[in-house]
């Protein structure tokens, strides 16, 4: 439960900060220049796509928080047998870092109207993401060959479930990235690509952050942190 409580607290803090930026306490009907104020606020308000992505990330984050909480509670039961972490996971992590950096590079390039570097960033980001997915499948193959089957142990089942859930989210991101890349190939102006590239970059940063947390959980690095949180909450 500690992971869920921490996540909800962080989500509430982010929501509170966002609401504080929306001038909810103002009374525009008492201010001069009413039409100008409304025009200014409409121009400064975030696009609907960005708000939608924020809501989706909040829901996805809740799902991962539930998985982390269930994993943490399940490890305390007697039938839990931890499985070894394949070394290939570290290579996959490095590839995902490269993918996130490439998407950020594309976003910075589109802000400069540098279409050539946008193409490079999108291609490197997509290729790295596909490499990560292939690497995860190879990790599954290694574990299967070594006898760590899905139904043999709860730890095995959780490993496959957690990595599969993250992989499915990455596949969904590749679909959005493919649509953005198609716009580039059609010759859409960089100014009209900025939002799409920015949303892809934000989503990739989210997936990287989630994966680093999951990797720490699967390797046992977060055990001490979770124990400290439990002690603080009890």
Written account of the structure:
Helix content is 79%, strand content 0%. It is mostly helical and 234 residues long. It has one domain (2-233): Cytochrome c oxidase, subunit III, four-helix bundle (Four Helix Bundle (Hemerythrin (Met), subunit A)), CATH 1.20.120.
Q: Helix content range of the residues, please?
A: over 70%
Distance between the termini: 11 Å
Q: Name the CATH class.
A: Mainly Alpha
CATH architecture: Up-down Bundle
Q: Could you state the CATH homologous superfamily?
A: Cytochrome c oxidase, subunit III, four-helix bundle
What is the CATH topology classification name? Four Helix Bundle (Hemerythrin (Met), subunit A)
Q: What is Rg?
A: 21 Å
Poorly predicted regions are 22-43
Element-by-element helix/strand order: HHHHHHHH
Task: Give the overall pLDDT as a whole number.
Answer: 81
State which percent range the strand residues make up.
under 5%
DSSP summary: helix tally = 8
Please tell me what the overall shape is.
elongated
How many structurally independent domains?
Answer: 1
Structural class: mainly alpha
Number of strands: 0
Major sheet = none
Task: Describe how the helices and strands are arranged.
Elements: H1 2-20, H2 34-44, H3 48-74, H4 88-111, H5 115-145, H6 154-185, H7 190-219, H8 223-233
Helix pairs in contact: 1-3, 3-6, 3-7, 4-5, 4-7, 5-6, 6-7
